[in-house]
Amino acid sequence: MGQANRGRGLDVMGDAQAERASTAWERRRSFRVPVPGQVSVWSKGQLRGRYDLLDVSIGGCSLSGGPAPKVGEEVDVMLHLPHRTALAVHATVRRVGSSSVGLRFEHATPRAEDCIQDVVVEAIARAHMGNSHVVLVVEPRHAVRQALVRTLRELGQHAIGVATALDAVQLLVEEGERIDTAFIEAESTSLKSDELVEFLAHNHPRVRRVLMGDSAHIQASWLAEATGEVHALLETPCNRDVLHRLLSRIESVPMDAQLS
Hints:
By secondary structure, the chain is an alpha/beta fold. The strands form two sheets. A six-stranded antiparallel β-barrel has the order 2-3-4-7-6-5. It has nine helices and twelve strands. A hairpin with a 3-residue loop joins strand 3 (46-56) and strand 4 (60-64). The chain is 37% helix and 29% strand. It is elongated and about 60 Å long. The longest helix is centred in the middle third of the chain and has 19 residues, at 110-128. It has helices at 2-7, 15-29, 110-128, 142-154, 165-175, 193-203, 215-219, 222-226, 240-250; strands spanning 33-34, 38-43, 46-56, 60-64, 74-80, 87-96, 101-108, 134-138, 159-162, 179-185, 208-213, 232-235.
């Protein structure tokens, strides 16, 4: 991973010096955020143990509750993070204390890297946004979801992306009061957008609902906007300017529209 690769240069030092430098690097460069979750650790094909996740950064994580591995040991880790499918990461044990174990991520798939980065960024955003709200993106296609989330963040929004309607409902139960806009993909075999729109309208009427999809799906959805089921339609793919204009327009939309 990006930050983990930069840390590998420390291995040319002596063991003790490298360990001290690595710890200092980790504290300076990796923003660790507390994230609830579970972690399974495997070594040489055998399950080493299951642990509670204490915190995570783009470059590593801290665990507690399982048997202590050895410093320097290479392990395979399965991260179970909130609202994410399980992520496989190869890691090195960097620190073993009386109550926690520190891992440094060495290798992960691009998808796992993106998901871990999203979790860290979202946690930092929540910690600093006070009474601000967030934008929820519900889109099953990973690349499309990531692109939209990045663009929304570039526009100053606190964007969170999830893949399924179930993930969205779980997040709304936990963070519903913080979310003011939901972007929902219009048509997918893995996402029942009409049911999610209805759930939002009845249970979270203050959340503005934006239905997005290709031109055919959007043209077929005009009635949903006309009847107030959704507050706006967004044809995708779209550029940053289109997204900015839509956000500016729906800011004036009343946040208490109910389904008839």
